[in-house]
Amino acid sequence: MSAAAAPNSAQQSKSTPSDFLRTIRGRPVTVRLTTGVDYRGVLVQIDGYMNVALEGCEEWNGTQLKAKYGDAFLRGNNVLYISATSGAK
Amino acid sequence: MAAVAPPTQAPGSSKANASQILPSELIDRCVGSPIWVIMKSQTELTGTLRGFDVYVNMVLDDVTEFERLADGQVRTNKMEQILLNGNNIAALVPGGKPDA
Amino acid sequence: MSGAQVGDASASAGAGSAGDVDATVKEPLDLIRLSLDERVFVKLRGERELRGKLHAYDQHLNMVLGDVEESVTTVETDEETFEEIIKTKKREIPFLFVRGDGVVLVAPPLRST
C-alpha cells in the first residue's frame, strides 16, 4: 500500500516454495514424514506434489538408523517438511 | 436476469473496508519476520518466513522444531532452511513463539 | 494424488520422445519408471511392506505387483508385563493391485551390491 510501510529490517531475498525446489536438487536433505520418520539422502528429483526421489537414502527413527535404500521414492502427501542439511555427512 | 447476475465488484471491496485483511495478506506481511507454526499434530515450529505459496507451503529459515513426545517431553531440532508442507498446518502466529 | 502442489512448479515434466527408454530421472516418478519389471520394495501406511515385481504404475502410485511377499508388523503390549511384543506376519500374494494413496515409499532393487 504505502511505501512508508516497508520494513527497515535487513531483508534477505524472498524465497518461495518453488524457488526452494529449484535450489535444493542435488543437495543432501532430510525429509520428515508426518509419521515422524526421517529419510536422509541426496535429493535427485522433486516435483510440485513434494514427491521426492532420494539417492543413498537412510531411514531414521529418531536417532536410530532403521534401513538403507540405494534409491527411494517418497510420496509427497506424506511429507511434513524437507530440510536442506548443511555440511558433510 | 439482472437479479441473477453476480455483482461485478463486491460492495466496499475497492477501498472502504480497510479494516478487513485477507488471511493471505496477513501471511504476506510476515515474510522476512519470525513466525510460529502450529501443526495439526503435536509439533510446532518457529523460524523466519522466507516465502509461501497458495497452499501455504512455506520456506522457513533458522528453524526450531518442537516435537511433543508420547511421554510428555519436548524434543527440539534446529535446521537451517526447510520447505514445510502446508497440508499439515493448523495455525500461524506472526512474530514467533513468545518463549523461544 | 493429493490436491495441493507447490506453487507453479511443473508437476508433469514432459515424458520426452517416445521410443527408447529414457534413463534420466527428470521427475521423481521416473525413478519408479526405471524399476518396471524389477522387484521393488514398497512401504505402505500401517506398517505394511511389500516386495514384488512391478508390472505397472500410474501417477497416483497405484501399482500392479506380481509374486508379492506382504509383511505386516504389529506392536502389542502385554497387559501384565507391559512388554512390547513385535509381531511380523508374512504372506505370499501372486498378483496384487495397490492403491496409491497408501504408499509411503518405493525403493528399487539395490543396483550396486
From TrEMBL, chain A:
GO terms for biological process: maturation of SSU-rRNA; mRNA splicing, via spliceosome; tRNA processing. Keywords: Cytoplasm, mRNA processing, mRNA splicing, Nucleus, Ribonucleoprotein, RNA-binding, rRNA processing, Spliceosome, tRNA processing. InterPro entries: Lsm6/sSmF (IPR016487), LSM_dom_sf (IPR010920), Sm (IPR047575), Sm_dom_euk/arc (IPR001163). Belongs to the snRNP Sm proteins family. SmF/LSm6 subfamily. Residues 1-15 have a biased composition (Low complexity). It is found in: Cytoplasm; Nucleus. It comes from the Eukaryota. Residues 1-21 are annotated as: Disordered. Residues 16-88 form the Sm domain. One of its GO terms (cellular component) is U4/U6 x U5 tri-snRNP complex. It comes from Pycnococcus provasolii. GO terms for molecular function: RNA binding. This is U4/U6-U5 snRNP complex subunit lsm6.
Automatic annotation (TrEMBL), chain B:
Gene3D superfamilies: 2.30.30.100. Residues 22-98 form the Sm domain. It comes from the Eukaryota. Pfam families: LSM. GO terms for biological process: mRNA splicing, via spliceosome. InterPro entries: LSm5 (IPR033871), LSM_dom_sf (IPR010920), Sm (IPR047575), Sm_dom_euk/arc (IPR001163). Its main location: nucleus. GO terms for cellular component: Lsm1-7-Pat1 complex; spliceosomal complex; U4/U6 x U5 tri-snRNP complex; U6 snRNP. It is found in: Nucleus. One of its GO terms (molecular function) is RNA binding. Keywords: Acetylation, mRNA processing, mRNA splicing, Nucleus, Ribonucleoprotein, RNA-binding, Spliceosome. Transmembrane segments: none annotated. Plays a role in U6 snRNP assembly and function. Binds to the 3' end of U6 snRNA. PANTHER family: U6 SNRNA-ASSOCIATED PROTEIN, U6 SNRNA-ASSOCIATED SM-LIKE PROTEIN LSM5. Belongs to the snRNP Sm proteins family. LSm subunits form a heteromer with a doughnut shape. This is U6 snRNA-associated Sm-like protein LSm5. It comes from Pycnococcus provasolii.
UniProtKB/TrEMBL annotation, chain C:
It is found in: Nucleus. InterPro entries: Lsm3, LSM_dom_sf, Sm, Sm-like_LSM3, Sm_dom_euk/arc. Residues 1-21 are annotated as: Disordered. The keyword Ribonucleoprotein applies. Residues 27-112 form the Sm domain. One of its GO terms (molecular function) is RNA binding. Keywords: mRNA processing, mRNA splicing, Nucleus, Ribonucleoprotein, RNA-binding, Spliceosome. Gene3D superfamilies: 2.30.30.100. It comes from the Eukaryota. One of its GO terms (cellular component) is Lsm2-8 complex. Pfam families: LSM. CDD domains: LSm3 (cd01730). One of its GO terms (biological process) is mRNA splicing, via spliceosome. Component of LSM protein complexes, which are involved in RNA processing. Component of the cytoplasmic LSM1-LSM7 complex which is involved in mRNA degradation by promoting decapping and leading to accurate 5'-3' mRNA decay. The cytoplasmic LSM1-LSM7 complex regulates developmental gene expression by the decapping of specific development-related transcripts. Component of the nuclear LSM2-LSM8 complex which is involved splicing nuclear mRNAs. PANTHER family: U6 SNRNA-ASSOCIATED SM-LIKE PROTEIN LSM3. Belongs to the snRNP Sm proteins family. This is Sm-like protein lsm3a.
